[in-house]
Give the backbone structure.
Amino acid sequence: MKRTEILLIDDDPKLFELLDIYMDLAGYHLHQALDGIEGLKMIDAINPDMVLLDIMIPGMDGWKITRMLREKSSIPIIIVTAKNSEKEILYGFRLGVDDYVLKPFSMAELVARVGAVLHRCNVNRNSSSQVERGDLFIDLQRKHVKVKGEKVELTPTEFRLLETLAKHSNKTIPIDKLLSEVWGPEYAGESSHVKQYIWSLRKKIEDDPNTPRHLINRRGFGYRLD
């Protein structure tokens, strides 16, 4: 059986040595790149199943790597960094990262988060449904979204949120459930993530984001896709 390939882009060799032990026990094969440029080369060479990415690395910072990857790929990205401001965390999610882990962290927790993100991505990949709501078309297998026949570019997180709503069309989904399914159970209570991404989606798929026809809010409870 092919092992899951994980690439760590971080200039701390001691972190790699310790994390490699935990990853191996979980059945993952961990690689390391010590700077951003080497990291991009290794992504092309080994085509990893996930990237663990520090922000403050030599050669090219993690934000630039994330932007470059999201222009061409939906590969899962988990940020692992000491940068802990809310502004930076939200910026990461706006760029399309799948999770954000603060240093110092528990190795066991990081491995668990890796498993949760990979599971979510695999579930999405195996879906074959198509959803049509008026001028909105969603292909859940190919991760394509069209409005009035025109393709709409979404970040991976935006798509996961829209996909979750699409699977429960016309049913209001509680905010906590959206957080759990899109970001993971550890984000319980972080309603700002949902509000921010709902607004971002509305700007891309609604004729008038201030008067939405597709993404409807039931105040104090959650959202539904009409």
Observations:
- The mean pLDDT is 86.
- The CA atoms of residues 185 and 202 lie 24 Å apart.
